[in-house]
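go over whats below:
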Amino acid sequence: MPKDPKSFLKIPRTKTEYRPACERVKDYHQVFVMRDDEKSQEQAHRCMDCGTPFCHWGCPVGNYIPEWNELMFEGMWEKAFHLLHATNNLPEITGRVCPAPCEYSCVLGINDDPVTIRENELAIIEHAFRHGFIKPSPPESRTGKKVAVIGSGPAGLACADQLNKAGHSVTLFEKDKKIGGILRYGIPDFKLKKWVLDRRLEILEKEGIIFQTNTDAGEDISKDVLLKEFDAVILTGGSRTPRDLNIPGRNLKGIYFAMDYLTQSNRMVSGEGVKGQELIGAWGKKVLVIGGGDTGADCVGTAHRQEAACVVQIEILEQPSECRTDDFPWPYYPMLLKTSSSHEEGGERHWAVLTKKFIGDKDGHVKKLHCVRVEFEKGTCPPKMKERRGSDFEIEADLVILAIGFLHPEHPGLLTDLGVEFDNQGNVKTDENFITSKDKVFAAGDLRRGQSLIVWAISEGRKAAYHVDKYLMGKTDLPII
């Protein structure tokens, strides 16, 4: 296909193709269907090659989006891959689960549908894997410096990868049985199959990164040993303290945090098992998910696959608009109504609902949630919430999942032992060089900036690696993002 400068006017955006809902709810396989290369090249042709590409600005890792779109369209897949890999350590993962803030900053999106940037990214990296472009490439020499990365989520993996490329000897510590953090245990397999993660980990291991699992830093290896044996320690343990719902009846049985539910499900799907734990399952139950975000949606999809009797999801905020409003002008990331693949599989969603109290049976098990509808006064910042008189109602539920976000990293253990300072949100405080209040201890990811997107975690890990390398060597050739 010859390049047409007006292609964005002629080629419509192709929506993501999903497997039929009636089929996919019966398994944990990938819910979407991969596009073929020809279709991906056609979609890449929609890129306008803007003079000022705001998609760069919208992408936390600064992906060279117009550049690799053009290379892919021209059939130069390997060059497109190298350009993609230059800014993103885990494109096969962001290509599947990133909410694509770049697409909301696409110039074409001002008056048309934006370019399918996320799917184009996925097409490039999967083409690269299929055609053998990706091979282990250990550093040619080592610096003699030893680095410990604590936590193997996206921030930890990106940081470890960058520091290993710089020639440092990197050991990545993970308290769970397997590497991956939230990528392995928090994201359901129907969104991210774990072979995708394992494929990348095999490469990183062959490149020289040491993975030490079943090791709780601060307990199985003390902070004194870490500080003595390593030239730098990077904390990337994530934001794992869940936000609770302190209303009457919270102590009833059958109420769980979302991450506990998702982690158990992922362990069961992988065959790892949950021996010795109380089983959290939705089979035949009336499930209520409290919280309208992506984690809540993951719980909805998991409950469908566990054959719940019914699933209801509620959110305290009002239902977002389906289109941009004046509150979120282009190129900012807007608050829009998101209907995920999990929502399309069934269940109910209710907005502007305030939880009042849980109601249990004589055995102390939750049976209902008493709620009231609310409305928000416009013109105040933040908008004032008030209950709608006479709008009380109840939702039947014998399994309640709390998916209302996270407060900050877990303080007890290594963070307390190290004596690092926290900010007013409870996150680990650092200076502009990602250094904590403790000498040679760095921090990155949700543990530092608070709960956020996977692509921000990767960005944080890369930036931390830049500063760690500069700290260890006095200079660095690593990119800042």
